[in-house]
Amino acid sequence: MKTIIFASDYSKNAVTALKYASGLSSKLGTNLLVIHIYSLPMMLGLEFDIFYDELEKTTLKKHNTKLKNFCKKHLGKDLAGMNVKTEAFENLSVSHGILAKAVEHKAFMIVIGMKKESAIKELFMGDTSMSLIEKAPCPVLLVPKSASENLKKIVYATDFEQEDIGAIYKLSQIANKFGAKITVVHIAPSINGDANIKMDWFKEMVEQKVTYKKIKFKVLFSEVIFGALKAYLDSNKIDMVAMLEREKSGFLKKLFQRDMVKEMESFGKIPLLSFNEANY
């Protein structure tokens, strides 16, 4: 059975994200591994060895108990019946710890909660989120506090990359379990260009790989790319936005090359599913 990994920090936003991850896991028929990563203070000198060994044991037990109680409080007591497991462990780097578990379990997806819905730049450019997005061996889903578990409309933002096709295929597997509609969107700066021709070609390429029927393709024309996408997400009440993150010039990196934080606040209100180009 496939595994979804959810990384918890016990925050209020983590509660929403935990419930979202649990609902997703249930719908997709996967295991849910809830993890918490902590670090211990550095201690030097032989006189600390015995104390440190005991500290490791008591801290590990404390965090595992706290994590299990956190999950029982918000998901219910029968975690095993919901295919939910918990594991707290030490690592100096949160992102490294999450990635290690993702590799170990060959994770289907990593889910984390967004810290602040308004501080969008801090949200995505923080060490943990961006490190996961850039290096994860599976899709990474960022869930805001206001996220609804209702998944009926998904937007996939494309720039006609070959790797988009594999990502859309995986997205279609998720959408199929919810009966959700996928709209593949491209934003072009000029109506006089060849964007519609490229979209027709891209549609043919996708349909050769993806058999899911609830997919449509749309070109939006605007000089303000991210503003146009924001408006589309808002006006169509989209439940999730997905995109491919490229190593050198991914969409999320472009998002912060200019001062667009206020314009893109809606990204902090919709779950964002990021696919790493290297995996496709």
How would you describe this protein?
It is a single chain. This protein has two domains: 3-143, HUPs (Rossmann fold); 153-279, HUPs (Rossmann fold), CATH 3.40.50. Helix 3 packs parallel to helix 5. It has 280 residues and is an alpha/beta fold. It is 42% helix and 21% strand. A ten-stranded mixed beta sheet has the order 3-2-1-4-5-10-9-6-7-8, sandwiched between helices. It starts with a strand and ends with a strand.
What structural class should be given to the helix and strand makeup?
Answer: alpha/beta
Give the radius of gyration: 20 Å
User: At the first level of CATH, what is the class of the largest domain?
Assistant: Alpha Beta
Average pLDDT, rounded to a whole number, is: 85
Shape: elongated
> What is the number of strand segments?
10
Report a brief summary of the structure.
The chain has 280 residues and is an alpha/beta fold. The chain has nine helices and ten strands. The chain has a ten-stranded mixed β-sheet, sandwiched between helices.
What would the keywords be for this entry?
280 residues; alpha/beta; Rossmann fold; 10-stranded mixed sheet; 10 strands
Summarize the SSE layout with pairings.
Layout: E1 3-7, H1 12-28, E2 31-38, H2 49-75, E3 84-90, H3 94-104, E4 109-113, H4 120-125, H5 127-135, E5 140-143, E6 153-157, H6 162-178, E7 181-188, H7 195-209, E8 215-221, H8 225-235, E9 240-245, H9 251-255, E10 272-276
Helix pairs in contact: 3-5
